[in-house]
Amino acid sequence: MQERIALTGNEAMALAMKQINPDVVAAYPITPQTEIVQIFSDYVANGRVKTEFITVESEHSAMSATVGAASSGVRAMTATSSQGLALMWEVVYIAASNRLPIVMPVVNRALSGPINIHGDHSDTMGARDSGWIQIYSENTQEAYDNLIQAVRIAEHPDVLLPVMVMMDGFIISHAMENLFILSDQDVQKFVGEFKPHRPSLLDVDNPVTVGPLALYDYYMEFKRQQAEAMRGAKPVILEVAKEYAELTGRKYGLFDAYKLDDADLAIVVLSSTAGTARYVVDELREKGIKAGLLKLRVFRPFPYEELAQVLADRKAIAVMDRADSYSAFGGPLFTEVRSAMYDAKKRPPIVNYIYGLGGRDVNLDHIRKVYNDLVEIARTGEVTQLVNYLGVRE
Amino acid sequence: MAKLLEIRWHGRGGQGAKTAAQLLAEAASSVGKYIQGFPEYGPERMGAPVLAFTRISDEPIHLHCHVTEPQIVVVLDPTLLAKGDVTQGVPEDGIILINTDKSPAEMRQAMKLSGRKIYTVNASRIAEETIGRPIPNTPLMGALIKITGIMSLDALLEDTQKKLAKKFAGRPEVVEGNLKAVRRAYEEVQGE
Amino acid sequence: MNRPLTWKEVPQGGWIEKPGNAVDYETGDWRSIKPVWIAENCIHCLRCWVFCPDASIMTEGGKMTGIDYKHCKGCGICANECPAKPKALEMVNESDSGDK
After folding, report:
1. How large is the average pLDDT for residues A55-74?
2. CB C38 within 8 A of CB C90
3. Domain of A158?
4. Which residues of C touch A99 (CB under 8 A)?
């Protein structure tokens, strides 16, 4: 039984956390994630969850305490944004390498400097190689759904990796939208009872060592094993999505292809901008222009084979990045997609648009311009500007 | 009702523009509409000009950009009219609803505005008299649904009652005052 | 422990579920000097047991019984700390000591 209500992204994430009812949450507030922690701490104070809430003095401590809790054999969560994620940095890697199934909402916000509180993907794109599974959400509904599914993905015995679930700061976190929510019981049933996968730190009868030293004699074997876990995550993500669809009717994959089957022109994009782009696709289709859209949901593991398959037959592709990689080349999504296309049966021209940094609005005209450029590239087969900055003052 | 209705709220930090944008969205959601309600967060604080937006539609809303061409503009504070152009992007047949003690004709003259429809309601006074504080956001919702027909007065009153009863549990006079304010603005709003 | 483990065999995430496995790692052959216990001088104060960084002082019933040469690295702390007069622990060159 589902209920249709209106919530902001932060309210939806906090509600999902309540319904997951984790054993431990250790979190520190930071704009624009603050409300998640604030609302969740209300749930704790009002006895709506059985969670042990640990107030900490920094994000470094938040992630450390979450790692400690997860190592002691319980379901543990935290949440952060931007500088908070940056401050967690060294422990973020440890959560992944220790194979701890931690789930963390990250409300995407630009990294300093200059100081900025608004939404872009520089924070989590920086953490793309930390070994966490990364799932990006377009709207409040997806933020809610993804967080619930993340628990099952993280804790699956073939995976046992931490998962971060993203939504765009302010654009989604502070926007009220309609969504369907599940009952507490249904969420509880879906995520299931937490079963520790191995003896924990608190299991005095079966003592364990966590986080040992491994030098050149063993480090590489551990990292190879970790890489395999990320490879194993792909089928699990799809399996969990299938089960979630049976419960809710809402279908999720590694990405969402919109009118892509017969499209000549395609945009590849993450998160909230996909919605705005979908509007333009409809507009262009009415004019008879074969536009399509690929909204990537799962950035880690990166579905390079699946992407190459659905993108190969396009005549021109634009990859939109809400973060730069300062590689003197292109944005992180662009370089991944381009690399994925190297083995495709055809290699259409692919251009990059870096947009929306620091929360700069990307409107219909911006997206229309990208498709217009693609029309020209498809016609001539020539790319005049490989990497473009969209909506910047020249 | 239009396929997609976009509303821009002009207020000052602390006047409840964000709350109004989201309360209206929530109320429209309660009668089955698809909605968005969101603020524009700048470095504002109490008293600084702020913007908030509401989108209402009969179909799912995918847009996640700012509202730049609102069919309706709501001005919570008439002093904002002197600062910047609240009519920016509003189409010829767009609507401007202003919280003021002046009539629409007086406002049209003061704003030197041609085209568009102007509505006025003294939401601050209504709020003062019904809630006891000059917070114009709830009465403006009453005026808005009268103008647009987004939903019925009864549906708005029901949803507002439900939400405020939760927020102001133990203070029934606040809930009652707000409902009265919505009803009065619904009745008192004038247009030309 | 002769063959190093492959990536498929190493414990998941580095969780070592067999505690106390340092005992399998024989560090005794690191020694260049070794402590020799002189039982008749020993006052069984167990200062050597407290200070030994490698748990190589063997005891039974609260009394010193000897040195675990499989793990003793020959650091000499025990002999240095021994308060007995004359000392109950003495360091000798490994090459001079004959047996191991």
Report:
1. 97
2. yes
3. 2-248
4. 12-13, 15
